[in-house]
Amino acid sequence: MSRPVTAPAAPRPRTAGAVTGVPLLFALVRTVLLLALVSVAVFTATELLPGDAVDLRVTPGADEEEVRELREELGLDAAPWRRYLDWAGSLLTGDLGTSLVNGRPVADALAQRLPATLAVVGGALAVATPASLALAWWAGGSRRARRLSTAVLTGGAALPTAVTAAALAAVFSGALGLVPPVSLLPPGASPWQHPELLFLPVASLALPTAFFGASLLAGAVADTVRLPHVADARRRGVPPWRIASTDVLPFLLAPFTRVTANTAGGLIAAAALVETLFGYPGIGSLLVSSLASRDLPVVQATAVVAAAVVLVGLLVGDLVAALTEPRRRPVR
Amino acid sequence: MRRRFLPAGALAVLLAATACGGGEEEQAAAEGPTLRYAAVGAPAATTHDPHGRVGNESEYLRFAMLYDVLTVTDEDGVVQPRLALSWEPAGEDLDLWTVALRDDAVFSDGEPVTAHDVLFSLNRIQGKGAENNGRLSVFDLEASSVVDEHTLELATHQPYAEVGIALASLTFVVPEGSDDITEPVVGSGPFQLEEHDDTTAVLTRNDDWWGGAADFETLQISAMPDPAARAEAVASGQADVAGSVSPASAQQYESDDAVQVSTRPAGVNYPLVMDLDTEPFDDPGVREAVKLALDREQLVETVFLGYGETGADILNSQEPFAPDAAPVERDLDRARELLEEAGHADGVELTLHATNSYPGMEETATLAAEQLAEAGIEVQIEVGAPDTYWAEVWNVEPFYLNSLGGNGFVDYARMALLSDGPTNETGWDVPEWDADFAEALATEDEGDRHAMLADLQQRVADDGGYVVWGTGDGIDLAGSGVSGLPTGPGFHRLFIERVEVSG
Fold first, then answer.
1. Where is the ABC transmembrane type-1 domain (chain A) (predicted)?
2. Could you give the ipTM of this predicted complex?
């Protein structure tokens, strides 16, 4: 009872060549414009906060004349639009400016911390992405346990990072004693030399992210496994692993990349909290403390770098989507 | 095809990979013993300039070890010589002082430390007065001069007998001409800077330091903003000392043999501040009622978990000239009576401001409000954001919590109690008190002067706007091999060169 010849061919994702240079250029321009927009938004938001760097640098009761001089020295007496343009201008020449708190180059501060955050966020992505796919598979694929799986995913995604971090530290460091409770990097050491210090921050970030990613992906999985060619492949007795790899996964690539880019953005935000909790110095804690001291050049640079990571991720996601989006042609 | 691939599996793999990592020991095996100090600090504000705004305890600690200071206070709060050997009045008026410096202090580049370097540094500190609380504003540096290589003459604007205190702890001496200290400059202190990034500084012992080489070879200072993380760093052996942890951490590790709890008196002080110019605090009866209505013992027990002392409204109880004030006993009947006499028989409604940037401050406000309510003072609590509290509440609102950790009374009085003081937050405007303060500082005899200063503090305690209900200990944690941590009040905590580390 085999009718192999008449079986409808699985729709193929579009292949390269369909993407011309024009949409790519358009996507690039859009990314650059969005970045500019982000920098304006961050600048405006910080500007709207009460007080500037000088207010937070001087001590109570400071002499007004001296305060004015300090403000002049730091260039904070200029109009906001002027300061923004100055900043943007020097950014275009590759200069990130100097900190208003300690006068040191912002690029230095970023360069010191970026590797640490990339290690944690990258590690968390490396764990969370396959995990979210696996979870989505379980949730989207099961018809029986739909309610349960939705509850598990929503519950997991709603876990505050602080709670996850505290629980993981209690279990893996407190009860089991496997890893140190804080992630104090020895001076000059790269985080990769001390994977035991990365465990808690990475796991605290990865766990909620995996559930969040899965809850976004579960729908796509559910839709895909109900596509006619998948049902048909099943009827034909194609082994599940082949259905998964040739009939389902290609359809998930686009949503999967987009979800990953989005979660990467969330991860950078959550990293600020995790870095503080575990005493691990990255750009998340840099953003928090520079915001508190109104150190605008540092805030701007950190936010733009973080935004660039997300926007470039989304750009890649769009490209992948453009390359692989299946055409929903009627079955021949 | 439904494989149950839960993240637990992925975690287990990662865990297995990391558990084999091990490796804390490798760098501890360097030549001499290392002291690893986890200090309070938020990385972004890291600065190398010891004279401007210093936002982090970790930086003060670094500066105190890299640079010599003129004088220090000891474990009893008494001024002691450091780079300055002596300070003597150069006349009857106590407004010109001869300061003799050590002649054996040397910067790490081999140049001797001279009076020129000291005067340059003092000028630089004064020039950044807006950022350092007007630290040296008593001095008239234009009228001050270098006498010889190791002697200075310092002029003060008014007679000022407590010059030793004015020069204490934070007078970091840098080489003359160091106008820009964006990057570190050489110092003459007990340690030298080996390497640093924004979070961690590694200092090595200065074997030629005039005070004698430190017991440990390397000092590693890490800035960690979270108090619980600092405590855990010591408990897990990743650090030897954790500066300023919470009372809860102290309690947690009190029975742990591997962790020592070390306390410094009056490291924390959250007085209630009342503005004498605003109703109802313009009535001395109301102020006294507030002072009598608080249950100070309960506050110390609850806020500091017993790591502290009740206060009798004395702003600084740790200095040699602090008055022996009798404890203030709670007396609700008398408090109600005073309110009634002040025309508030039906009670008073107040708003007390606090912020949560300091551990225990919000608890203080909550408990104080409950206690005051029992005397008929209805208190609403308003919690302000940490980064705007000092601009929008402090010295603005009529009733709030301040945070004074170990401010010296004389310095503090100059700023906040003299009627023209720049931060007179309580509106304490008593010409007679101002005159007596000036007279005390023009009194050369230490015994007489101290008696006068004690009386001045007591008068503020009795009639002023500060309710110093108690002070909390500064609490440090140390690993079992550490001994000799500083236990004195104020900035004594920064001078850690005589700490010993074993094992």
1. 114-317
2. 0.74
